[in-house]
Amino acid sequence: MSTDGSTRSAVVDLLLEEGPISASEVASRLGISAAGVRRHLDALVDSGAARVSSAVGPRSRGRGRPAKMFALTSHGRSRLGHAYDDLAGAAMREIRAIGGDDAVRVFAKRRILSIVRDVTPADGSAESAAATADAIARALSEAGFAASTRPVGAGVQICQHHCPVSHVAEEFPELCAAEREAFADLLGTHVQRLATIANGDCACTTHVPLGTPAVSRDGNKSASERVARDTDTSATVQPSPTRDRLRKEPA
């Protein structure tokens, strides 16, 4: 890859992981001139891969014109690894056609539990919950979600800067719902989804309050134990009441 291409990729990575972000912040992080960064940003905006917004809150400059902030668009994200979206979408539709909405929910739950299977559940303390949030972010990053955590007020936020299945999640919100439920079980507290890439936001953001009472439905079971439990439960075939009644009634 050319130096120009490498720089463009580095700019895209920063927009993915830190966006919305200003041109000066990108230049500072990459150690290149602001003029060079703006050239790449302008090209990304012109191609529809990035969008511009005005800074708000503490990131604004105060007096004068607000700084321009850059972030990837859904078109820009589509270049990062959605090659199997059509196949994944078709597979999910087939699951729904065969087993209904319940089958989709079971699949979505198994999928996220397989990603976080090695994460140790929090023990009820704020410190443990924060450590578990970090472990969840690491597990998500290994699965391609480019995740991180950041402290916010009396809690922490899990930020997924990329979603390999965002286009599929637009049609099947069960995928997002299963993630939130798995996070709540591991963290032992209610969590709140503030934003999702599937809804057009820059990142999937989950707020985790620290120091609140534990509400885990599965106690301290590991994710791998819950995967095994769900597999056994879903594989059990319940006897048909009609068949039993016919067997007992005289001819």
The CATH class of the largest domain is Alpha Beta
Give the averaged pLDDT, no decimals: 81
How many helices in DSSP terms? 10
**Gyration radius from CA atoms, angstroms:** 22 Å
Span between termini: 79 Å
Low-confidence stretches: 233-251
What order do the SSEs take from the amino end to the carboxyl end, as H and E?
HEHHEEHHHEEHHEEHH
What composes the largest sheet?
A: 4 strands, antiparallel
Helix content: 40-55%
Strand order of the largest sheet: 4-5-7-6
- Give the name of the CATH architecture of the largest domain: 2-Layer Sandwich
Q: What proportion strand?
A: 5-15%
Number of strands: 7
Structural class: alpha+beta
Number of domains: 2
CATH topological fold name of the largest domain: Muramoyl-pentapeptide Carboxypeptidase, domain 2
Shape: globular
Textual characterization of the structure:
The protein is globular and about 50 Å long. α5 packs parallel to α8 and α5 crosses α9. It is built from ten helices and seven strands. The strands form two sheets. A four-stranded antiparallel beta sheet has the order 4-5-7-6, covered by helices on one side. The chain is α+β, with helices and mostly antiparallel strands and 251 residues long. It has helices spanning 3-18, 23-30, 34-46, 74-77, 85-115, 126-142, 166-171, 174-187, 223-235, 241-248, and strands at 21-22, 50-54, 68-72, 147-152, 155-160, 192-195, 204-209. It folds into two domains: 3-80, Winged helix-like DNA-binding domain superfamily/Winged helix DNA-binding domain (Arc Repressor Mutant, subunit A, Orthogonal Bundle), CATH 1.10.10.10; 85-235, Muramoyl-pentapeptide Carboxypeptidase, domain 2 (2-Layer Sandwich). A hairpin with an 8-residue loop joins β6 (192-195) and β7 (204-209). Residues 218-232, 242-251 have a biased composition (Basic and acidic residues). Residues 210-251 are annotated as: Disordered. Pfam families: HTH_20 (PF12840).
